[in-house]
Design a protein that fits this description.
The protein is α+β, with helices and mostly antiparallel strands. About 15% of the residues lie in helices and about 30% in strands. The chain has 7 helices and 16 strands. The strands form 2 sheets. Strands 1, 2, 3, 4, 5, 6, 7, 8, 9, 12, 13, 14, 15 and 16 form a 14-stranded antiparallel sheet that branches. The two termini are about 40 Å apart. About 35% of the residues are buried.
């Protein structure tokens, strides 16, 4: 059995305690130049300063997980053949060679992890920001794939009014989805003051963590009394799970396109592109000549972060862009991302404020979503 653990929590001038230790790890954040505290039970250093703000109520106990089994049998081969593909298209288990960053297999490894990230984590909790054309969203989510439950809260950030305004709320319980877009009195009552990650406190993260644990449960009955089937779970084949990422492409109008995309059985509205970045990978990175691996850095808790840079042509609006990307090596989950236009200006940016991979999740986070 193999155990994986990551915990990243934004901090400036303060220390957060977890498992009795603390140290620092820098995340690439060009907008805030923030410093980030990583907590891990493997550190031997004790914190030298206690935070004046209550620490995050996050259970950092690790769970045991196993790597996905990619030894496919005749049934998977038959499935491929039903789509006109032979056995050579079966998905492979790629390895990453840190001593040869230019290896094509390294790029295949990265593409596989980004397109199949949900195979490589069992639980995930994260808060991140996305800034796109001056619009900022702040999103917190939690996923437990063992019990097919997930929860997401998304806020629109108004830097002018210094407010976080609730935008959407999603609960998933197996095939049952509750999706709520906030407006009116509910939105007004749950708007709270926004303080940038650079601020010398944890109010934003504490607030969103609390809401993830007790997300407007008294408002659910006003949303719906009728269960909503999760249509994304109705495709039993999910052929994309079994296709080798390096062969899952064809050329259309001069550009590479994927044959198949995987269905995500959790399907949160906003967070999917954070924990399951296959759309970015398939749209931008399937052409290996357009990007390179810059470095692989190991943080103090032993987790490896891959830094990538590249270029691509956005044919939908006919512009050339460049990008910088950091992913967590084991899972392919985004740590940070910046998209630049031809003038070098950032037009889209992701920054992970906190993330825990394969930590035990408190059961009350997934409170009942049935009205």
């Amino acid at each position: 059995m193999k155990t994986k653990f990551i915990s990243l929590v934004t901090a400036v001038g303060l220390m957060v305690t977890a498992s009795g230790c603390s140290f620092h790890f820098a995340i690439n954040d060009t907008s805030h130049n923030q410093d980030t505290t990583v907590t891990s039970e493997h550190s031997k250093s004790a914190p030298t300063e206690q935070s004046t703000t209550a620490p995050l109520n996050i259970n950092t106990d690790k769970i045991e997980v196993t790597e996905p089994n990619l030894e496919f049998g005749q049934s998977e081969i038959n499935l491929l053949q039903s789509y006109g593909l032979d056995e050579s298209y079966l998905r492979k288990q790629y390895t990453f060679d840190k001593n040869n960053l230019k290896s094509p297999d390294n790029k295949a490894y990265i593409l596989d992890r980004m397109c199949n990230s949900t195979d490589y984590f069992t639980t995930l909790q994260a808060t991140y920001t996305k800034k796109e054309h001056q619009k900022i969203n702040l999103t917190s989510y939690a996923i437990d794939r063992r019990i097919k439950k997930a929860k997401e809260l998304c806020y629109t950030v108004s830097e002018v009014d210094n407010e976080c305004v609730p935008a959407a709320y999603v609960c998933v319980d197996g095939d049952y989805h509750l999706k709520m877009l906030f407006d009116g009195e509910i939105k007004d009552k749950n708007t709270f003051k926004y303080e940038p990650p650079l601020a010398n406190n944890y109010k934003v993260i504490n607030k969103t963590t609390k809401l993830i644990q007790q997300p407007f449960s008294d408002k659910l009955e006003a949303v719906t009394k009728k269960p909503q089937a999760n249509s994304f779970n109705n495709n039993d084949e999910n052929i994309g799970k079994y296709v080798d990422v390096t062969k899952n492409i064809f050329i259309a109008n001069g550009y590479p396109e994927p044959y198949f995309r995987r269905f995500d059985d959790i399907c949160l509205i906003y967070s999917q592109e954070h924990y399951n970045p296959q759309s970015f990978a398939m749209d931008v990175m399937i052409d290996f000549s357009n990007w390179k691996i810059d470095s692989v850095d190991t943080n103090n808790s032993g987790n490896e972060i891959i830094s990538i840079s590249g270029k691509y042509h956005d044919r939908y609006i006919n512009v050339d862009n460049t990008f910088k990307l950091q992913i967590e090596k084991q899972t392919g989950v985004i740590v940070s991302e910046q998209i630049f236009n031809s003038s070098g200006n950032i037009i889209e940016e992701y920054n992970t404020l906190n993330i825990i991979v394969d930590g035990e999740i408190e059961s009350d986070i997934f409170d009942s979503i049935n009205p």
